[in-house]
């Protein structure tokens, strides 16, 4: 079922009042770990990034292909990520939902967003000269059509701000096969794009207020920070 917002955008019925929190941050900054922590809270629907789809679409691995040859496969991966992110934003299917007494949780926490896929990763491929102009133009046309015609509400962005060095260490520890070739410079470029977008606010539209949590700490200290910020996060506020 669908309806239209006052701006004429397509809206998924029943989703109008759901609070949407996006957890943003560099690769291996601790987003999934954060989502796993909050998944223990009642009435929160948790949606992690569909990385398994990006690693296996009908037997193909666009994530792996992109890291091997970004110029050839960047558009393929990013087109698919844009689709799967849109699907996540619009999905009415309940994610990891603990102790939820309602049919659909009043709050959704999701890992990244269609916005960061475009403003961070597509942008990085393009700026680093690894995405041909025509691929960037086609992806941009798709993104603009989607965001102009479909309501993709986000109420709060939680930015896990971490140093690229920390991410590099954690990435090596996590040891995802496709990511073994990621150099520190790649994480530095992603970090800079995140900082320009969410801290300096000089690059692209920021679709929601931003709550910054420093994410270089060990797990125990991160949990303390999540508890200190719990009320803000669950009320969708950064103040
Ligand atoms: N605060 C932390 N301190 C140390 N290691 C962490 C911390 N948070 C996450 N990790 C580990 O770092 C790796 C990346 O974390 P993950 O949550 O998967 O990051 P992301 O989802 O942002 O890519 C995982 O191996 C995870 O267990
Ligand atoms: C959104 C997005 C992600 N990727 C890549 C970056 C990482 O290798 C994985 C996601 O893993 P993370 O630990 O959750 O950061 O996917 C990409 O290349 N393009 C994108 O738009």
List the helices and strands and how they pair.
Elements (H helix, E strand, L loop, with lengths): L1 E3 L5 E3 L6 E7 L5 H8 L5 E4 L3 H5 L6 H7 L1 H21 L5 E2 L9 E5 L2 H14 L5 H17 L6 E6 L2 H11 L9 H16 L10 E5 L4 H17 L4
Parallel strand pairs: 3-6, 3-7, 4-6, 7-8
Antiparallel strand pairs: 1-2, 4-5
Helix pairs in contact: 3-4, 4-5, 4-6, 5-6, 5-8, 7-8
The structure holds adenosine-5'-diphosphate and the ligand Cc1cn([C@H]2C[C@H](O)[C@@H](COP(=O)(O)O)O2)c(=O)[nH]c1=O.
What features would you describe in this structure?
The chain is of the alpha/beta class and 239 residues long. The chain is built from nine helices and eight strands. It has a single domain, classed as 3-Layer(aba) Sandwich (Rossmann fold). The protein is 49% helix and 15% strand. Helix 4 runs antiparallel to helix 5 (114-127). Residues 27-28, 31, 49, 51, 63, 66, 77-78, 81, 112, 117, 121, 179 line the site of the ligand Cc1cn([C@H]2C[C@H](O)[C@@H](COP(=O)(O)O)O2)c(=O)[nH]c1=O. The ligand Cc1cn([C@H]2C[C@H](O)[C@@H](COP(=O)(O)O)O2)c(=O)[nH]c1=O binds at residues 27-28, 31, 49, 51, 63, 66, 77-78, 81, 112, 117, 121, 179. Belongs to the DCK/DGK family. Its EC number is 2.7.1.21, 2.7.1.74. This is Thymidine kinase 2, mitochondrial. It catalyses: 2'-deoxycytidine + ATP = dCMP + ADP + H(+); thymidine + ATP = dTMP + ADP + H(+); 2'-deoxyuridine + ATP = dUMP + ADP + H(+).
């Amino acid at each position: 079922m669908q309806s239209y917002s006052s701006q004429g955008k397509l809206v998924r019925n029943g989703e109008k009042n759901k609070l949407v929190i996006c957890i943003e941050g560099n690769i291996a900054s601790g987003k999934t770990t954060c989502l796993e922590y909050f998944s223990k809270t009642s009435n929160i629907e948790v949606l992690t990034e569909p990385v398994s789809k990006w690693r296996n679409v009908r037997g193909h691995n666009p994530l792996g292909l992109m890291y091997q040859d970004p110029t050839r496969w960047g558009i393929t991966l990013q087109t698919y990520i844009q689709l799967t992110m849109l699907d996540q934003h619009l999905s009415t299917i309940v994610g990891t939902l603990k102790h939820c007494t309602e049919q659909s949780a009043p709050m959704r926490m999701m890992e990244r967003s269609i916005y960061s896929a475009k403003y961070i990763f597509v942008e990085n491929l393009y700026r680093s000269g690894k995405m041909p102009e025509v691929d960037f133009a086609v992806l941009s046309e798709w993104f603009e059509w989607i965001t102009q015609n479909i309501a993709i509400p986000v109420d709060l962005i939680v930015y896990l701000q971490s140093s690229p060095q920390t991410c590099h260490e954690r990435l090596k520890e996590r040891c995802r096969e496709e990511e073994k070739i990621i150099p520190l410079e790649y994480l530095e470029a992603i970090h800079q794009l995140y900082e320009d977008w969410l801290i300096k606010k000089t690059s692209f539209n920021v679709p929601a207020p931003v709550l910054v949590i420093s994410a270089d700490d060990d797990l125990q200290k991160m949990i303390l920070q999540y508890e200190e910020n719990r009320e803000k996060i669950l009320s969708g506020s950064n103040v």
